[in-house]
Design a protein that fits this description.
Helix content is 27%, strand content 20%. By secondary structure, it is α+β, with helices and mostly antiparallel strands. The termini are far apart.
């Protein structure tokens, strides 16, 4: 009796649990009284709980002798989500059939899938594990909430056609879209699972990748982007957070392609331009002059390749100084970057040449995906004397003088971020468990920070699976607006001296 009352008090204090609900038991104060000695004074509680963007009913077993749902015991102090027509039994004769109110709006998604653990939260959506009721197969579902008064692309006539194109995508290196549900207040995208999480996490945990590891990744990434480009799909948001690892053997899939089709062009572009670390210079141009081509994906892949090989980005406000008075956006627009020692000393010249060819400011002169796939660093073939890949032989010969830079300290992404696996969710027999990652617990704040994605965002705004983003890093005059602590004092002091 005392244990049950103590647990009831504890339950009412727990986050997300309604203090109301319906109490079933032997005690006269229960909402439903069952006069039987087998039944506990407070046997079980049925209450509502918010899950994702829906309200579900939960039964909690408070009894000594057990509460059963569909003949399966719930377990003392355990909970179970109730579904339509579930049978609840408190003993052999006392049985109840659970029904949701008729006024409750039924989600087409929830009719076909059961929502499970939350995997992450991004700028536009929350990501959950879900299970298909008909097959028992598990997927990830990305839930976009529609906000009234904000551009809502999901209401336009073309959305279903555009989503249909995305659902038609099938490639081993592209995260495929299994199903979509466009409902009154939200859009559900059901996706393949990527058990090992983001490439960003992998880089942070390893500090940097070897050339062989990077080569294995980029053969797949180039093939995936080639597939999309052949279908006139431009990704436009390639970054380590949108590259997902399928297994421990570095098999990867590109995620979030076609996101602009789902959330709307204006919302997507506004956020993208506030995340300049990976975007091509033409995206940073004035909106009237902004022009998107497939070349923007090549630039972003070049930035990711650079990060993989050294552990930090090529463009950063960390570099701002009297001798290098260029903000992040100015560095990108002018293509100002190099390969500082000692970080690049062990990386071969062919890798640098490929990056140079991908990070060309003029999109007309920038490498295409086909040229990337044919580059000697990727094919591991020796360039011929008459090679016409933009002066490859001469370029490699001049790299040591022109592009490799003297020793200079840079801050690794691994020094600014902490990543740990907080859970491994089983998803079926003979399948790898899905890892849930926690980022930046106990972040160190007394060091100069790299312009890593989402460093200055509110944590509930733009993290985890599906993308991260930086604050707007520059004003109309291209001056840095980094806050004090992110080299802000240094930048202000240097500007004052000039």
């Amino acid at each position: 009796m005392k244990d049950e009352e103590a647990f009831e008090k504890k339950k009412k204090k727990e986050k997300g649990v309604s203090s109301g609900g319906y109490l079933i038991g032997r005690h006269p104060e229960c909402d439903i009284v069952v006069n039987d000695g087998i039944v506990s004074n407070r046997h079980c509680l049925i209450f509502t709980e918010n899950k994702g963007n829906d309200t579900v009913a939960i039964v909690e077993d408070l009894s000594s002798n057990g509460t059963y749902v569909n003949e399966a015991i719930v377990g003392r102090n355990q909970r179970r989500e109730l579904e339509e027509q579930d049978e609840i039994a408190v003993h052999g004769k006392a049985r109840f059939v659970f029904r949701y109110p008729q006024s409750r709006q039924t989600s087409a998604f929830l009719q076909q899938y059961t929502l499970l653990e939350k995997l992450g939260k991004g700028h536009f959506a929350e990501v959950y594990l879900c299970v298909e009721k008909a097959t028992g197969q598990r997927f990830a579902v990305k839930i976009f909430t529609k906000h009234p008064g904000v551009e809502d692309r999901s209401k336009t006539e073309g959305l279903q056609q555009e989503i249909g194109v995305l659902m038609g995508v099938s490639h081993p290196n592209v995260l495929c879209l299994k199903d979509t549900f466009n409902e009154r207040d939200r859009v559900y995208l059901v996706l393949e699972l990527a058990p090992e999480g983001e490439l960003f996490n992998y880089i942070v945990m390893k500090q940097k990748l070897s050339e062989d590891e990077s080569r294995k990744l980029f053969v797949q990434l180039f093939q995936g982007i080639k597939y999309l480009h052949e279908r006139n799909i431009v990704h436009r948001d390639i970054k380590p957070e949108n590259i997902l690892l399928v297994d421990k053997n570095l098999h990867v899939k590109l995620a979030d392609f076609g996101l602009a089709k789902i959330i709307g062009e204006e919302s997507f572009t506004t956020t993208l331009c506030g995340t300049p670390s990976y975007v091509a210079p033409e995206i940073l141009a004035d909106s009237k002059q902004r022009k998107y081509t497939k070349a923007v994906d090549v630039w972003s892949l070049g930035v990711v390749l650079y990060i993989c090989l050294c552990g930090f980005p090529p463009f950063s406000d960390e570099l701002y100084s009297r001798d290098f008075p260029f903000t992040l956006s100015q560095q990108i627009k002018s293509g100002r970057f190099d390969y500082p020692s000692p970080y690049w000393d062990s990386v071969g010249d062919p890798a640098l040449d490929l990056i140079d060819s991908m990070l060309i400011v003029d999109p007309e002169k920038r490498f295409t995906i086909d040229q990337c796939l044919q580059h000697p660093w990727l094919t591991q073939s020796s360039p011929g004397v008459n090679d016409s890949t933009g002066g490859l032989v001469g370029g490699i010969a001049g790299l040591e003088v022109n592009r490799r830079a003297p020793a200079r300290e840079r801050t690794l992404l691994a020094s600014l971020n902490t990543v740990q696996v907080t859970a491994q969710l089983e998803v079926g027999k003979d399948k790898n468990p899905v890892k849930v990652f926690s980022k930046n617990k106990g972040r160190v704040t007394n060091i100069a920070k790299e312009s890593d994605p989402a460093a200055q965002r509110a944590p509930d705004e733009f993290i985890e699976m599906g993308g991260k983003g930086d604050q707007e890093l520059f004003a109309d005059d291209d001056s840095s607006i980094y806050p004090i602590g992110d080299n802000g004092e240094k930048i202000k002091a240097n500007k004052a001296k000039r």
